[in-house]
Write a structure and sequence with these properties.
Number of helices of chain A: 15
Helix content of chain A: 10-25%
Oligomer: homodimer
Strand content of chain A: 15-25%
Number of strands of chain A: 32
CATH topology of the largest domain in chain A: Glutaconate Coenzyme A-transferase
Shape of chain A: globular
Radius of gyration of chain A: 23 Å
CATH architecture of the largest domain in chain A: 3-Layer(aba) Sandwich
CATH superfamily of the largest domain in chain A: Glutaconate Coenzyme A-transferase
CATH class of the largest domain in chain A: Alpha Beta
């Protein structure tokens, strides 16, 4: 079912609708150009008179809890993705909904993973109408093939907080899985078989949802300390056998790259940061958990040791490498959004310098500032980058929507944004005339570092000046593209139908781009 | 200026108005009887586009910050009382307001202290129209004498959070003094010359005020960890020479009583809790910082050691005695609202078992439950108790309003509420036919323990049953009153005018009683 409404060209030059799923939306207007009006979402006032005076909110089953919270057709149900590929909670929720015969639910996860392909049957039978949230893998493919009943909406971590805070998305029932909780609903992800580290992705849900259910497989006597989720926001608690599969929660994505090309990119990135003075005493950095990023972190550590300097803070996702830098004293603080391995979980639990953050503190663009702009250097990935430094992280060059936005858009507000990426992947060039989907505007992307050269955004004259005299292979983005096309040939563009299957929101809630249905099933 | 509007009898039998300072109010309807409708207060949506991208919100002076936040006539300005008698911030705020020529401000402190008597000149000259918040000492006397331009409103800690959350009190500008802060506005009370422990009393202010200013004398590089106050709520930060007077912040109220009568009361209270089974493995208690309460805590410790049991948690105000119980392993957790001495500050900073709470977690009656109801035994004071176990904490028997409500009303929701009080003070009986001001309804007050006997509320048949066979001097409340009057004579009642000078709110925002102007200046 194609969207009937008119498309307009937004400030990123993309044609976007003025309405999604029957709700008006605002086209992207440029960085910092959209000014929100109005007030935050205000959930109903509760009263202790309506809750057990001894604080025990335990309900016998998740199904009972959902009934108690008034689950009905068309509601919005949220979950978080701290259990990643090991999550069992979202699937349980919709099993219950299906058993209760409820239809047309909007699923609002902070992200979905391949383990949630299980839910396709509920998308097929109308239990779930659509997903608003990042879709990693099969559900993204399902969406790309036009099989979802309504339009998906993808938001960054910060954008998700913003949407909930601003009342763009009203959550009827939030279901929050927790490694550890008490019967009052205080919860954390630090202990128990399903420990996941922090629970920050569920913060907005707990604060703004009408009804909140905490589900745990590890009930502890009140008080559950620390209360990453506060029981005062929680309506019901539920004990189940398992909320997650431990070995898949801690997914072990944290492997340093062994590819010589990637190692070269990592080394060049670190050297670039060194010669341009980005690495200095008291600086801050954010690096992901991918293989290249991990290597960059290790090179950063070497430089810091050699110079005898420290970083004031590192933004996480945390892993054993970052934790070892904290423990060595190379960084004063890890400000952590999610822990990727057991060293991360242990550290955030035991080390006062390893601090849980949330999309509110780190990324919410509709706050009075956030942490993103304070980070000296941010290392990010991309599936594609174009001649204007615009970048894509959600679709592949074949047009399939296979990744979420994560904190990527939010991190673009860092002081120096570097994308260390290979010039091509599987003989498909990464640098293109135009990206398939614009997720981030080029004006916020400062440096592209490939194995065959470094392109600095012409807007960053200061960086060009500083890098000029170093022994670095500086090129223009056009030169990089030509090199890639010389090797791989000019890439073909995917063919789409006119049907919009997903909207990509910018950090301020405006629509920066859309994803269309794949025309040809390959 | 007497209030023109009609008085009605509320469920506590007191005559209360339907309007205060021109705003409609609801008379107290009984415990758990008032059901709030509507939604929480929603502050304006902000945008990072309007805040410095590097996170530095420092403004040269408090006056500049107040101007930047749009200070103008008739606004509501809030402050917190974590600096207690050592607070310098509130006085600074109104000095600035006066210099700027602003008039008619509503001051909304979490409590005021004798050090704020300085502000009488601004109440006199109309800079401040009135105070909504507890008034300890001189300002309460000023209010009792009818000198305030509008009616004062007193709320419990939880009631203050409720009022802000529910939009009953809209804070225009919150000014939050902090022992430690960064330029982004992250703040805590754990470090620096003006360390005060937690900053929980300012939580609602940070979340719901239109504009928030953090003032510190101890600026640290970002990130200030932990962020008890989150910079994402903060508009401006200000550095000043001193936010407080250290030796008055840590006021040393923590002296164990030496009075033989008080010691007898303390010992009886502990014994009562022992024989009735209130003290059991995993129990919880809340005891204040007064001399008798401290002694009770020490007796509790003795009993626990003898029995080889532990408390799951103690609710604070914390002090060195409670901290030593935590360190000894007699209590698993201190859930702390305010730290009364340096041992408390050290412990809440360094001991993960010593946890900061806020009026939201502990006391907010318009939440989905709170901690108050989970506490097994609560030890509270009172200036007066009447035949129905109603109690007063704000006025003396001479009619003067000299104390705040603190967390007293909120704590009445504990499972067992005990008032260990002397039978008389300065030859004035504490147990009366009727209390001067009802602050808490008798149905929530379980036991009165005096040096001459124990009265159990007839509603608590279970406690009467359990205490019956112990060697305890059980009496009726009437017998206690008769004994007091035999010794002191029948007390005279104070004489009031018709003018209502202060309203006492119940935990749900309804009016439980009023205080009238003293007729005769003694």
């Amino acid at each position: 079912m194609a969207m009937g409404n008119k498309l307009v060209k937004n400030a990123a030059g993309r044609m976007v609708p003025l309405e999604i799923n029957g709700q008006p939306v605002t086209p992207y207007m440029g960085v910092g150009k959209y000014h929100p009006r109005g007030i935050k979402h205000a959930p109903p006032i509760a009263s202790c008179a309506d809750y057990p005076s001894d604080g025990n909110k335990l309900v016998p089953s998740l199904k009972e809890a959902l009934k108690k919270c008034g689950l009905k057709d068309g509601m919005t149900i949220s979950t978080h993705h701290h259990f990643r590929e090991g999550d069992l909670v979202a699937n349980m929720v919709f099993d219950c909904a299906s058993e209760l015969g409820v239809k047309g639910l909007r699923w609002f996860p902070s992200a979905s993973f391949p383990c949630h392909a299980y839910l396709m049957k509920y998308l097929d039978d109308g239990t779930i109408s659509h997903i608003e949230g990042s879709m990693n893998g099969p559900l993204g493919r399902y969406c790309s093939e036009g099989k979802m009943n309504k339009t998906a909406v993808l938001r960054s971590h910060g954008g998700r907080y913003q949407a909930v805070q601003d009342g763009e998305v009203k959550i009827d029932i939030a279901v929050i899985g927790a490694g550890c909780a008490d019967t009052f609903g205080n919860a954390n992800g630090l202990e128990g078989p399903s420990a996941s580290g922090g629970l920050g992705f569920a913060l907005a849900d707990s604060q703004y949802a009408d009804k909140v259910i905490v589900v745990t497989d590890n009930l502890v006597p009140f008080p559950c300390i620390p209360w990453q989720i506060q029981g005062n926001y929680v309506d019901c608690t539920v004990q189940v056998d398992k909320v997650g599969i431990p070995e898949k929660i801690i997914s072990g994505t944290t492997k340093v790259t062994r590819s010589p090309d990637r190692l070269l990119i990592a080394e060049m990135t670190a050297r670039f940061c060194d010669v341009t003075g980005i690495i200095h005493d008291g600086f801050s950095f954010q690096a992901g958990a991918g293989g290249t990023s991990l290597s960059i972190g290790i090179y950063f550590g070497d430089i810091m040791r050699k110079k005898g300097i420290r970083a004031r803070f590192a933004r996480g996702g945390s892993n054993k490498y970052l934790v070892s830098m904290l423990e060595e004293g190379l960084v004063d603080y890890i400000l952590d959004g999610q822990t990727f391995d057991l060293d991360g979980v242990r550290s955030i639990r035991d080390n006062p310098g390893h601090v849980m953050t949330s999309p509110f503190t780190s990324y919410n663009y509709h706050g009075k500032g956030n942490f993103a702009g304070m980070v000296d250097v941010v290392i990010l990935g991309a599936t594609e980058v174009d001649m204007n430094f615009n970048a894509n992280v959600v679709t592949h060059s074949d047009g399939y929507l296979l990744h979420g936005l994560g904190g990527w858009q939010n991190c673009l507000f860092g002081k120096n944004v570097i994308l260390p990426i290979p010039l091509f992947r599987d003989r498909i060039p990464v640098i293109r005339e135009e990206v398939t989907t614009i997720c981030g505007p080029g004006e916020l992307i400062d440096v592209i570092i490939t194995e065959r050269g470094i392109a600095i955004n012409p807007l960053r004259k200061d960086l060009i000046e500083k890098a000029r005299n170093a022994d670095l292979p500086l090129k223009t983005i056009g030169q990089l593209r030509e090199e890639a096309e010389k090797i791989c040939g000019k890439p073909e563009n995917p063919v789409f139908t006119d049907k919009i299957v997903a909207a990509i929101k910018w950090v301020d809630g405006t629509i920066i781009d859309v994803v269309k249905q794949i025309a040809v099933d390959r």
